[in-house]
Each structure stands twice: as structure tokens, then as C-alpha cells.
Amino acid sequence: MIIVCDHCKTRFRLADEAVNRDVFKAKCAKCDQIFTVTRAPPPEEPLRLDPSHIVEDPRYKVITICNQKGGVAKTSTCINLGGALAAMGRKVLLIDFDVQANLSELLGVPGERCFFDVIEQGGDRELSKAVLKVGNNLWCLPSNSRMALLSKRYLHTRGFEKILADHLKRITSFFDFVLIDTPPSLDFFTINALMASDFAIIPTQAEYLAVKGVKHVENIIDVLRRKTRHSLEYKVLITMYDERNTAARAVRANLRQAMGHHIFRTDVVHDPLVQESQIVRKAIAEYASGSEAARQYAAVAREIVGQTA
Ligand SMILES: Nc1ncnc2c1ncn2[C@@H]1O[C@H](COP(=O)(O)OP(=O)(O)OP(=O)(O)O)[C@@H](O)[C@H]1O
Ligand SMILES: [Mg+2]
Fold this sequence. Notes:
This protein is α/β, with parallel strands linked by helices. It folds into 2 domains: 1-39, no CATH class; 44-308, P-loop containing nucleotide triphosphate hydrolases (Rossmann fold), CATH 3.40.50. It contains 12 helices and 11 strands. The strands form 3 sheets. Strands 7-8-6-9-5-10-11 form a 7-stranded mixed beta sheet, with helices on both faces. Strands 1-2 form a two-stranded antiparallel ribbon. A two-stranded antiparallel ribbon has the order 3-4. The protein is elongated and about 70 Å long. The chain binds adenosine-5'-triphosphate and magnesium ion. Adenosine-5'-triphosphate binds next to helix 1 and helix 10.
């Protein structure tokens, strides 16, 4: 939780476990003011989920979808893979961790409370209240423009890269899978998402320059693994693939050879129905379950569920 000195207004982060009373006195480490802190009452019902449905400790549960390159279908993969997992009966939380808030827009929850609002307003107790139901088996923690303040406020604080991980662990047990959508950069937001995850999906188009972006993400994952002993694994997903394009076929063949087992067996083709589904704010599994892209996202979901077994 965040507490604020009522004299000098300095903000402090306090672990929830550190206090066991709802009203307590704190001494400001900056100005020595002693002030009273009142903890917000717990939500009446954190999340309306039935814990009996939960898969216990799958191997990969929290999954970041990232690539510093823009427009490679990160957000589309988040919504459509999430939709495919939800259609398989899994309970899925989609986290919009991008200031652009495209995922929130596509899910019909733009402008709703975001992760930044939550930790400003009292932290973990608020987190479950900000999670909104957006479909059958599907929930969303939205983003909005205030998310930009998250990196401004916390970038230079100690342990900034674990803010999401620290908060998220309180609610992951409600879900079978948590998918995190990230911005087209490898900055504060993507690093936080990766640190909270067991697995990363790197969507890429089968284009020469796009593949360079993949290398970059691999390097970052490698650095995080070495510096933090974080057992983060990853796979590349080829998106918007066009079999008729000779260059795309060649790039895809090279990628498959170079990535070995770090690439999904399934590619997702360029399918105009994906764009149509976004206009009506539905995952492709719901909008056109028989479409090529829907079947491919379902196959990717099966690869993931297979990995978790
Ligand atoms: N399989 C597909 N077939 C056709 N169009 C697609 C497919 N996947 C994504 N698109 C389209 O490609 C565009 C970019 O997709 P998306 O917004 O998901 O990319 P992104 O990587 O999240 O972008 P950004 O880096 O800006 O966050 C969108 O217009 C989307 O509708
Ligand atoms: Mg996006």
C-alpha cells in the first residue's frame, strides 16, 4: 500500500504484511512527522470467480506478449489468444500494460481504472476491483493515458522492474492464464511485464526487418534471466503471414531454422476477419470461430495449454 505523510506529503510504499491493523501510526522518515494511517476496507468480494475451476500451478501462467516493433499484432494476439483460451474453458485475465490502451479500446473498456490508478488509490485491495469482466471466462485490467505516470513516478525507485510482479501475485490464483499486452518498446512497461511472467510470446511478421526486432527481445530476455535468475521462456509467433508472398516464405523458413524450438508450430495468417472482429469488439473466436485466424489462434492456445500440462 502507498502511505503519504500528511506534513511533507512524501509517499512511501509499505508492504501489506508489514501492518496488521486497519488504523495505525507511522513516523515519516523524511520530516519525522507522526501521522495516522487508515487502511481502506477490503472489497466485499474481490473477484467473482469460482476457485474450484482453477488449474493449479501450470508451468506457464503469466504470459507477456511483446516486441519493440510496432504493428506486429501484439494486441491482436493478446485478445485473440485470450479469446481462444477462454473458449477452451480457461479463465483468462488480459492486462493492458500499454499507454496506447488499444486492448482496452478493443474490449470496450477505455478510460476505466488502470494499474497506475489502482496502486495510487491503495494498492492490492483495489486491484481486484479494477478487474472488469469483458466476456465469458474473460477479464481485463484496463489501461488509460494515466499509465504514463507510472513510469514517471517509479522509474527511478528501487525495484521498479518488479512493481507489476509484486502486485499481480495477489490475484493470479483467480485465473488459469494472465496475458499482458505491452507497448512497442522494451522500456519500463515491457520489463515490468516480463519480470511478472513465466513466458513471453514474441509476435512478428515474416519480414526481414521485423526479424531483427525479435533478436532484440531475445537479448533483453537473456539479460533479465542472467541478472535476476528469472526462468523466463519464450516463443516467436509468426503473424499476418501471407503464403503467396515469396519473401515472406523465405523469411519464415529462415526464422524456423534459426529459432529451433523457440517458435510456435502454428503461424497466424493475414485474415481480414481479424480486423472486422476488432470493429465489433470481439475476439475472433467469438466473431468468426470457423475462420482461418480463429482456428490458428485456437491451435496456438492448444500449444500453450500443452506446454502447461
Ligand atoms: N491476423 C491478422 N490479419 C489481418 N490483420 C491483422 C491480423 N493481426 C493483426 N492485424 C491488424 O494489424 C494491425 C496491427 O495490429 P495490433 O494493433 O495488434 O499490433 P500491435 O503490435 O499491438 O501494435 P502496437 O505496436 O502499436 O501496439 C491492426 O490493424 C490489426 O487489426
Ligand atoms: Mg498494441
